[in-house]
Amino acid sequence: MIYNREELLPDAYKQYELPALFTAYSIDWEKQLLDLRLHVLCENLESTANNSVDQTLALKIFDMYDLIKHLLIGLETESTGKLQLVKEESISSKEVHYQTFDFACRVEKAIPEERFTKTSIKNS
Q1: What is the rounded CA–CA span in Å between residue 105 and residue 119?
Q2: Domain encompassing residue 104
Q3: N or C, which end of the chain has less CB nearby within 10 Å?
């Protein structure tokens, strides 16, 4: 889903299932840089406190964060370089576990396929 400050609206948590992953990105075409931010929100089900019986289960959230990072680091397409993890941040929230991941990569301007150029588009 596209990021729209969902974590700031606790009432919106009912509108999507958790865990949820939201994306926000920007492209600087002059510098040919893509910045991608992932917002990961998960339910606060268990306690990570030292005396919690469910501590092991509660800490599995960090396994999921590691999986997300490892799936995306180095990911590339025909028009982008490899994604590099630039920053990771845990955001304080009482309602959910909330983590952001910032990635960056080089991006090339897409060359339109021939079927999309002016000469090949026909008026209907």
Answers
A1: 33
A2: 6-110
A3: C
CB pairs under 8 A, 24+ apart, for 62-67?
64/19, 64/40, 65/40, 65/99, 65/101
Burial of residue 7, with CB atoms counted within 10 A of its CB: 0-12 exposed, 13-18 middle, 19 or more buried: buried
**Cβ contacts of 59 within 8 Å, gap of 6 or more:** 48
**What stretches of the chain adopt beta strand conformation (E)?**
20-28, 33-43, 84-91, 96-106
- At 63-115, the pLDDT tens digits run 889 999 999 999 999 889 999 999 999 887 777 788 999 999 999 876 666 55
pTM of the model: 0.73
How would you class 100 by CB atoms within 10 Å of its CB: exposed for 0-12, middle for 13-18, buried for 19 or more?
middle
Q: Is residue 1 part of a domain?
A: no
Number of domains in the chain: 1
Q: How far is CA 44 from CA 33, 41, 48, 60, in A?
A: 35, 9, 10, 12
